[in-house]
Write a structure and sequence with these properties.
The chain is mostly helical. The chain contains 25 helices and no strands.
Amino acid sequence: MKQKLVCSGLFALFIGSAVAQIPAGTRSVDDHSREDAVNQQIREAESALEKQDYKGAESKLRTLAATNPKDGRILYDLGFAQERNGEEADAAKAYTASIAAIPDFADPKIALGLLDARSGRTEAAHRELVDAANLPNAAPELRARALRALAHLDESSQPEAASEELLAALKLTAETPDDVLMGAELAERAGDAADAEVAYRRALKLLPDDVDATAGLAHVLKQQGKLAEADAVLSGVLKEHPDDVRLIAQAATLYAAEGKEAQAIPLLEQLRAVDPKIAADPDTTRLLARLYYFNGNNAAAEKLYTALLTTTPKDPVLLDALGSAQVKQGHDAEAEATLAKAVALREEFHDDQAWGEAAGHLAFAASKNNDPKTCLQALAARATVLPNSPTLLFLEAKAHDQLRQIKEAIAAYKAFLVLANGKFPDQEFEARHRLIALEHTR
């Protein structure tokens, strides 16, 4: 809020100057004229600020500041006008001079702190806001404003400190709807999805149309596995804000989690079309590629995975995904080569299970590519970290069969039939007939 100019300090300044120049009990006509002129300038500056005529106010305040360079309140109002005129560097200088003139004046400390925060000067902003919050004689409203600004500043990097600052602000002034929303966001950052849900629901009662609260509630519902509830929350707000990038992104990830690829894909395509930053974001691109894959558009998935690999060519998860998309398209030789690269990067996988699954994919691609040796090598590697499955036992049996390793083929076919137990009728039919043929060749 704009701090009004105070005239009494200026009157004292000019009265003191007059007393030094003329005998006590007398008064100069020039002194009266000077006081009247300054008083008029102050009234005009205040009027311009009240009318939001910041250009006019700045012009008048510059004149006042030139003749009164130590008046902290004039300097603060000058900075206020300059900031609203987009002259942030000049505003910062005026606020700094105001603080130097009146060290216990909270307004310029808060204004400078907020200005520095917006400009990315977080350390300076933090220092200035802490100073304002700790001024013992400042109005509670001003100290609370500084504390809330600190909480916003610390929300991402120091959520615990932000919680303490918000609580301190609430001891000085009454809770606001924005406080409730920030409390929900802080609970979410702390990993307490249940508390965050309660707070977001409370915030939405106070701010029924607030997009931040709606998006936050949908996110924590998704975190708790309440996908249908999250879907209902997002569906309603998306109708009101169909172009809100954040809501579209949330809906896309939610639909992906629900297995609704057909609904998620157009939303992500829309995001990438309207926002170049999102189009270049690897996480969004990876998600869209995965959705294409599960929705059967393997050519589109392959294109996106290939583009991602130009930036991170040794990402084994991307290589695994690309190889799987190539298999789906019948590009067996390319798939085998891609998956072999992935499996060779064992140390780069986040866990053994992911590596073992990639080895299984390589076995399948090699089998389709009529490369039984590589198929068996991949299956052997997989077996070191994951148990056998009926499908992979069948691949193993066929690979031994192709290599005329009769004993091993018979053992693998029999092991497959035990695990299959009627769940794979076509493969079981083939396995039984191959067993009969192999038994005759012994």
